[in-house]
Amino acid sequence: QVQLVESGGGLVQAGGSLRLSCAASESIGSINVMGWYRQAPGKQRELVVVITRGGLKTYGYFVKGRFTISRDNAKSTVSLQMNSLKPEDTAVYYCKAVAGSDEYWGQGTQVTVSS
């Protein structure tokens, strides 16, 4: 059972930046995929970006070069650098890990972007 804890959310003005971090309770070296999803009020949860163990990244359509994911297997962390934030980026951001057929989710961290 992998536990994921997100941090780094908060309130930022449009055009600003935030960095989210996700710390895993055990080594992520064997975890196939890690990444971030988000859910805005009244909307479905959607992909932000995921990264495989081999470093392959898949971004959500709306990212358009604004967000960058990084994975540190030694520290068992995954980070998300978000730049040029927009009000429509306001959502709860969730960390996700996929290990074999098992999926794990963090409890989420709120990101609010004011106009």
Task: Provide keyphrases for this structure.
115 residues; globular; mainly beta; single chain; 11 strands
Protein architecture, described:
There is one protein chain. This protein has 115 residues and is mostly beta strands. Helix content is 0%, strand content 55%. It has strands at residues 4-7, 10-13, 18-24, 33-39, 46-52, 57-59, 67-72, 77-82, 91-99, 102-105, 109-114. A hairpin with a 6-residue loop joins strand 4 and strand 5. The protein starts with a strand and ends with a strand.
Q: How do the SSEs run, as a string of H and E?
A: EEEEEEEEEEE
- Runs in which pLDDT lies below 50 for 5 or more consecutive residues are none
Radius of gyration: 13 Å
Largest sheet, strands/sense/barrel: 7 strands, mixed
Q: What helical percentage do the residues reach?
A: under 10%
Terminal-residue CA separation: 40 Å
Beta-strand portion reads over 45%
Q: Give me the secondary-structure category.
A: mainly beta
Average pLDDT number: 94
The count of β-strands is: 11
Shape: globular
Task: Provide the fold topology.
Elements lengths: L3 E4 L2 E4 L4 E7 L8 E7 L6 E7 L4 E3 L7 E6 L4 E6 L8 E9 L2 E4 L3 E6 L1
Parallel strand pairs: 2-11
Antiparallel strand pairs: 1-3, 3-8, 4-5, 4-9, 5-6, 7-8, 9-10, 9-11
